[in-house]
Amino acid sequence: MARALDRVRRALGRTLAPTTAPDHLEIRDGGRTLFLPLTAIDHVDVAGHYLCIHVEREVHLLRLPMAELAERLGPAFVRTHRSALVRVDRIAAITDRRNGDGDVELIGGGRAPLSRSYRADVEARLAAAKR
């Protein structure tokens, strides 16, 4: 029995294709599943135990930890606050506050909070995107 399991494990190891990052996000909405393209997502914020996925004027709810979603979305998104993720190419401006925090203004008029602990990463990602 152990030899058979070893053979199966070896066979599966050879046949599994390398995984690639998905180009969409699956969101269950009642009895249907929405497949949102990652390029359509503007930003993500938190409402209680849910993540609010903002796509233009629509908001979709997803119950998932922010860190897990950030990993799924990949490098096109940057964390601006413990409760916010923003698509880098949707950032129009950063407004400052006295304490080092601020807001990220989005193309299309949205806003997301910017905490001082994430500020350096956001500015570095914006500088890299402009190159």
Kindly describe this structure.
With 131 residues, the chain is an alpha+beta fold. The chain has a single domain, classed as LytTr DNA-binding domain (OB fold (Dihydrolipoamide Acetyltransferase, E2P), Beta Barrel). The protein contains three helices and ten strands, in the order H-E-E-E-E-E-H-E-E-E-E-E-H. Strand 1 and strand 2 (32-37) form a beta hairpin. It starts with a helix and ends with a helix.
Give the topology, please:
Elements: H1 2-15, E1 24-29, E2 32-37, E3 43-47, E4 50-55, E5 58-62, H2 66-73, E6 77-81, E7 84-87, E8 91-96, E9 102-106, E10 111-114, H3 116-130
Antiparallel strand pairs: 1-2, 3-4, 3-7, 4-5, 6-7, 8-9, 9-10
Structural descriptors:
OB fold (Dihydrolipoamide Acetyltransferase, E2P); 131 residues; 3 helices; alpha+beta
Q: Could you say which overall geometry the principal axes of the C-alpha atoms support?
A: extended
**How many E strands?**
10
Mean pLDDT comes to 87
CATH class: Mainly Beta
Beta-strand content: 35-45%
Domain count, please report it.
1
Q: In the CATH hierarchy, what is the superfamily?
A: LytTr DNA-binding domain
In angstroms, what is the radius of gyration?
19 Å
What is the fold named in CATH at topology level?
A: OB fold (Dihydrolipoamide Acetyltransferase, E2P)
